[in-house]
Amino acid sequence: LVCKTMASSEQKSNDVPTQSISWERGTLKDTIPRSTKILSIFWLASTSVSAFVLDRTLQNTTNYSDWLDLCIPTCMAGLGTASVMAGILYSDSSISAFLFGLAVFSSSLIIRPAWDMNFSTLVLESLKVSSPPLVVALSSSIGSLGGLFSLLSTYDIVYSINILSVGSIPLASLLFGCSQLISRNNSSEAGSHIVLNLPINIGATLFMSITALVLFLLYVQNRSHKHGNLTIDSKKKGANVASFFAIVASTYMASQSTSTYVAMIPVLIGSLIAILLGAFFASVADVWYAVGTGQFQMISLDTSVILSYFVAPLFVLYFRFLLKYGDFCEARIVAIVSFLSSIGIIPTDVSYDIENTTMVSLLLSMGVFVAIGVPLINSLCPLGGYMYGRLYTHGQPNTKHIALCVKFADLFNDAASMDEREDLWKFLNSRENDEKTASLNVFVTIEDMKQNASLMKELIAAGHFVGITTSKEYSSFDVFQWHNIEGLVKKSCEEYLDITGDKPSWFHVGNTNTVGVHPSSLRTSYELGMRSAMWSVHINVTQSTGLSDKDLTNIVDGVKQYRGGNFIYITASKRSKGDGSVAVALQQVVSEIRVLEEKGYVFAHMSSVAKENPGMYLS
Q1: CA nearest 85: which of 142, 134, 51, 47?
Q2: Among 56, 150, 239, 437, whose Cα sits 20 to 30 Å from the Cα of 497?
Q3: CB atoms within 10 A of CB 51
């Protein structure tokens, strides 16, 4: 089955390091502190910033006269922050939606304006507002209902055009409403100051929404891996869309009543602050092209210093600017709005309630970005993996080493065509001039190891790399299954050791609908001395003829851009399993890269593509 003529002397079997390395070059020793400390610091930082924003938003309003009145709203903002963090750590927007719904329900019960209601009325009103995200989250955890969400997967919200369309509409409505209020109120108020007469101060929240729109667009358009979406499962993509609409619906329902929108604002502020901070850290690390957890955490530490030394003073300068030039700027804005109103561009004599419309737009502008934020971060950056494991989405660039990754079950399915596999082995062994033979990185589950131990040994003897993975499907209830998932990874590691005599050095998370993305899997693999892998580009084969021209172009573009370090992950869709299409696709990828104008690319083992302590070369 496996051609054994490959020169195994060229590459050591499985590249298991003979000596442990204390830390990677250019990174902190072992990774910065324990994940619980990092998460606690992040939560405290987000909640503290939320308290500042709440103070700017609610000060001098009807129900908030001093900072003591902000204690309960700050706690509710902390719940919003926690909901976002959980969704990111578990790479699941359904979990985030569920906790967001609980935060909204709690806030609606506790925040002061709600106390005027009858208790039963209060509970029903709170349930009504929080029900959309709660229902969606619970439905996604039920197998038959969760499968229906896959029908929504064709609408991917993590696209620039989608972010721009759904994010700019409420923002434009908010800005237009503010200009109407300025025009109307300035004609009756003395002076040239901006007068909105809204229940809250909207400056800070408006700035947050604009920042979110700009940051999201820049991140998506300039991300390193253009075709490396980390959310590849149709159910999860559908759940992202369903959660988006659920959170937006909950926000809209809350905006219809004074008691509920006052309760919703702290939750939205806390959630959006956490998303902005998470997206900021992720985007900065993406620009610097962090290789693995160690470099990501080192860059994040530098980013936090940047926030302290550069961004914080900018806020001080901003408030100084307002103190000195605020009146002048307000007078200019009022003059411009008055002129636009005088020529009919900004009407003030309208049939609808401008204040109410403006408040609805304000809440929706924040709700939209909260709903987009968690799926966006999960699709572009595995923050949870960087907290719990030694995770890589790519190796070192400019090495011309590429990792071609595939699941054992996709390549050696019992019904798979033998001819395609034999052609693949011959093709991988063929080489011209000084080319090296191509190696595959094959990942096996515990079931694969028990049923195909001899074939697994043949792969290793032939010079291919074999790591472990899991095929157990992920469920929202697995949030509470840390011990069971830990045991599953340990059993896989023990089975691998029994078969090969060596410990596995790499763990692949598999598809994002498996427990491989669970924090327990990543932490356990780290504790067992393994590194974890995702992908730079993922291609799902849907046709027996292999990859389309577009798929091949996407792969080749990534290789040309970074000249190595790419993790190319090829999987088979359910309808193409067993027809030999994965073997054909692997041949296509190898042949396309071998004929590139720039020669010297090597299809190597994972440990050669992502080295722990690479040399430093200056050119």
Answers
A1: 47
A2: 437
A3: 22
For the entire predicted model, the pTM comes to 0.88
| Residue 452, beta-bridge partner list | none
Helix (H, G, I), strand (E, B) or coil at 37: helix
Does residue 493 contact residue 214 with C-beta atoms inside 8 Å? no
pLDDT of residue 145: 65
467 phi/psi in degrees, rounded to 5: -120, -175
d(Cα 327, Cα 333) in Å, to the nearest integer?
10
457-477 per-position pLDDT tens digit: 888 888 889 999 988 776 666
pLDDT over threshold 70, residue 189: no
Q: Which residue has the tokens 């195994």?
A: 8
**Closest residue by Cα to residue 113 from 271, 268, 257:** 257
What's the pLDDT band for 144 if we cut at 50, 70, 90?
A: low
Among the listed residues 70, 76, 131, the one whose alpha carbon sits nearest the alpha carbon of residue 101: 131
Q: Report which of 363, 344, 359 is spatially closest to residue 104, judged by C-alpha positions.
A: 363
- Residue 432 has a pLDDT of 61
Cβ-based neighbour number of residue 450 at 10 Å: 11
The size of the chain, in residues, is 619
Label residue 26 left, alpha or beta by phi (over 0 means left) and psi (-120 to 50 means alpha): left
What average pLDDT does the chain have?
A: 82
Rounded distance, CA 68 to CA 35, Å?
32
Query: What is the C-alpha to C-alpha distance for residues 192 and 177, in angstroms, rounded to an integer?
Result: 18
**CA distance linking residue 466 with residue 135, whole number of Å:** 42
> Other C-beta atoms within 10 Å of 201: how many?
16
Round to whole Å and give the CA distance between 361 and 198.
Answer: 13
Q: Tokens 């470099």 label which residue?
A: 295
Q: How far is CA 122 from CA 37, 125, 263, 282, in A?
A: 37, 5, 12, 40
Give dist(CA 247, CA 133) in Å, integer: 6
d(CA 355, CA 223): 39
Please say if the pLDDT value at position 534 is more than 70. yes
CA distance 210 to 214: 6
Handedness of CA 149, 153, 158, 159 (dihedral sign): negative
Number of neighbours of residue 30 by Cβ within 10 angstroms: 12
Of 234, 237, 227, give the one whose Cα is nearest residue 539.
227
pLDDT, tens digit, 9 for 90 and up, residues 400-420: 899 999 998 888 765 555 556
According to DSSP H, which parts of 501-548 are helical? 519-527
Is 519 within 8 Å of 38 (Cβ atoms)?
A: no
Which one, of 507, 471, 513, 509, lies nearest residue 490 by Cα?
507
Alpha helices in 141-190 (DSSP H): 143-146, 160-188
CA 242 to mean position of chain CA atoms: 16
Q: Which pLDDT value is given to residue 17?
A: 40
